[in-house]
Each structure stands twice: as C-alpha cells, then as structure tokens.
Amino acid sequence: MKQSQKLLLTWLIEDTGLFDIVKQYITPEDFTEEIYKKAAEILYAQFAEGALNPGKIVSMFQNEEEQREIAALFNARIHEIDGKQEREKALKETILRVKENSYNYRAAHIAVTDIAGTQKLIDDKRQLEALRKLHISIN
Fold it and tell me: Residue 42 belongs to what domain range?
C-alpha cells in the first residue's frame, strides 16, 4: 500500500491540477504510512495557500533518510499513460487503493467503544462504495 500512497503524492506534485479532484475523496488522514501522511498534510496545506514549495516540504523532515524519501516524490516521474481514459482509470484505481487501505487500517484499529469512529467507518464504507461506481474525469 505504501506504493499507492507514494504514487498518489507524486501524481499530485507532478500534476497540480489533479488536487481539486483528489481532495474530494482523499484527505491526509487516508495516508497510513506516517511519512506520507505528514507529507500529505504539508502538501494539502500548501495547496490551500496556493503555493507549492517542494523544498519546504522536504525541510520539514528532520531525519536524513526521510528527507531523501520525500525528495524522491518530487523527482519521480510517472510513466506516461496513453490516453485520457487510461489516465482517469489509473487515477481512480489509485484513489480507491488508498481509500480502501485507509478504511481497512482504521477498521482494524478502532476501539469497540468508539461510537463516533464506528459511525465514521460506516460513512466511509458508503463513500467507498459510491467511489467504486464513480467516473473520475480529468482534463
């Protein structure tokens, strides 16, 4: 699942126009890998401010290994996907994988007494089912 989270972040960095689509379905909390969750939080905040600054994101990580891993997100290139339909399909599949992993992770770690958390899981399950049927359109 780490790969899907990394891919989605790279995609957002590479094509900032996708952010308005992705943010409808994925929040930073959906990233279960701590390093990618932190990167997503910073990235989403920068998008909200309207200024993407890769260097600032990398510098927010203290550990040199983490800095290298985050810098790799900015230097990675997604292989060219032929055609708009294939891009839309690949984006939807990536969003679904990240969202499903988030749901499964939270379902496995929720306390049985957490009523609000359980309700959120139910809502997320509905959203996941709707997302499976949805067509994502990109320019």
Answer: 2-133
